[in-house]
Amino acid sequence: MDATDIDQSELFSATSWQQRSGGPRYLQLYRHIQAAIKDGRLAVTTSLPAERELASLTGLSRVTVRKAMSQLVADGLVVQRRGSGSFVAPQMKRMEQSLSALTSFTEDMQRRGKTSSSETLSCGIYLPSPEEIVALGLTSDVQVSRITRLRRADGVPLAIETSTLSTEFVPDPNRIETSLYEELSQEGIRPSRAIQRISACNLSEDQAALLEVSEGDAALLIDRTAYLSSGRAIELTSGVYRGDIYDFVAELRNA
Amino acid sequence: MDATDIDQSELFSATSWQQRSGGPRYLQLYRHIQAAIKDGRLAVTTSLPAERELASLTGLSRVTVRKAMSQLVADGLVVQRRGSGSFVAPQMKRMEQSLSALTSFTEDMQRRGKTSSSETLSCGIYLPSPEEIVALGLTSDVQVSRITRLRRADGVPLAIETSTLSTEFVPDPNRIETSLYEELSQEGIRPSRAIQRISACNLSEDQAALLEVSEGDAALLIDRTAYLSSGRAIELTSGVYRGDIYDFVAELRNA
DNA sequence: GAGTGGTCTAGACCACGGG
DNA sequence: CCGTGGTCTAGACCACTCT
Predict the structure, then answer these.
(1) Is the pTM of this model over 0.85?
(2) Is the per-residue pLDDT at A201 higher than 90?
(3) Which domains occur in chain A, in start order?
C-alpha cells in the first residue's frame, strides 16, 4: 500500500477508457495498459495491481484481465512472477537486443528515436505470384493481402515497402494502420525468425519521385521472409530504402 | 460426418495421451495435436473437430481446448475461420540454419560455391585515422596495418575492401595472402563477433572501373567492426560490393 | 498464512458463414 | 436456420513466494 496505488486506482478504475464499440474488452484493457507503460505513466519495475484487484477495479472478470496481461507479457512489456506479482518490464533490452532483432519498420524507427509515418500507395487482395507461392508455401487456391506503403521517418520519405501475407493471417489489408506487426500481434501472431536478403539497386524514375531523390540514386533493396516458430512462412516484404540516409545494422557471431 | 471423423474420435477420445504429471492439460493436448499434425496423422487442410466437440471428446472444458488451439494457431499449424471451423494449415519446410555467421570474404565465397581470388591494390603501415582510433579503441601512438584489395568471385570483380588492424595483431600486412582471417587464425586470433553497417552508394568513376561496371551504378557499402571475445575491437573493414551480383543475407530473431 | 499467478470448469451470449 | 469460433463471467483449486 504505497502512494503509487492511489494513482493506479485512478488509472484503471476510471471507466473513461472503456468504449462501447472499441472492440473486445481485453484488447481495450491491453491497449490502455500498453499506452500507460509506453508514455511512462507506469514506470519501469513498478508493480501492477494483482490480477484479482485489476478485475474488480475494471469491472472485468479475472479471465479477461488475464487475456490482456498475457498479451502484454508476450510483448515483453510486463513480467509476471508466480507468488510475487506483475511488474513493468525493464525496457533497456530494446537497446541491447537491438541489433539482429526482428523488428518492424515502426519499431526500427522508434529505436532510432524518429517518428514514423506511412502512406498507403496501394492495398488489396490478389492472387499470389509464383514467387510468393514458393516463398510463403501457399497453395494456388488461397489469396494474399498485399499492401504497398511509402514510409517516412520524421516526415522524410525513406522507403517504399510492399508486404504480402496470406489472407489467413490478414483477411483485410485495409485495416492495417501504421504497424503491420502490431496488427498481427493483436491476433496473437508474432514472427520469430526472418531471413533478409540485402542488395543494392538504382532507383527508377517513379521510385525516385516518391522518395524525393534523383533517378538512378543508389538504394538498398531488402527482401524479407518472416517465419513463425513452427517454421511456417508468414510474411514476405520487399522494400527499397534510400541509400543516402538509411543503413541496416547487423550483428555477426561465431557459433 | 465423413470417414475421417472416426479416426479423429479415436485420436482424441482415447485417454492414452493424458498423463497424470505431464504438465497442464492444455499443453498435453497441444503437444498431442502438434505431434499428430507433424507426423501426418492429421493431413493438411483436413478439418479438426469443432471446439465443443473436442471438449467433450477429451473430457476437458472448452476454455482449455481453446488455450491449446490458440497455441497451435500462433504456431501456424492450425487456421481457424469463424463460422466455418478449424483446419490443419499447409506445412512448410524447415529453415536453413545458421546464417549471420561471422565469415571472411573467402569463407563467404566458399559457402556460395565460388572460387575467390584477390588483388592487392595498396598495402602498408599508417597512422590511424580519427575514425579508426575510435572504432578500434586505439591510443594515438600505435600504428595500423591497412590493406586494400580487389575481390573476385570466379574471376569476376565483386568488391573493393579496405581492412585496418592494429600492428599488434598484423605487424606486416604484406604477409597477407588470400584470407585475412586465416592469417589471424594461425596466430590464434579469431574474432567472435562483428557489427556490420550496410548502406548503399553510387560508384565513383575509379571504383566503377575496378569493378568493371558503369559509373553511378548502385553498390552496397559494408562497414564491419570485428571484436574478440574479450570485447576488444580488432578489425575495421570497409567494402564496396557490386549491387547487381552480390547480396548480403542476414537472419533476424526474436528472443 | 496470506497473497500471487497458473490452471480449470460450466455455462452464456455474440458475430459470422454456409446450407 | 444452425453450427462455428470469439468473447466473457463467477467461482474454484493448486503451486508458489514472501513475511
Answers:
(1) no
(2) yes
(3) 4-91 (1.10.10.10), 95-242 (3.40.1410.10)
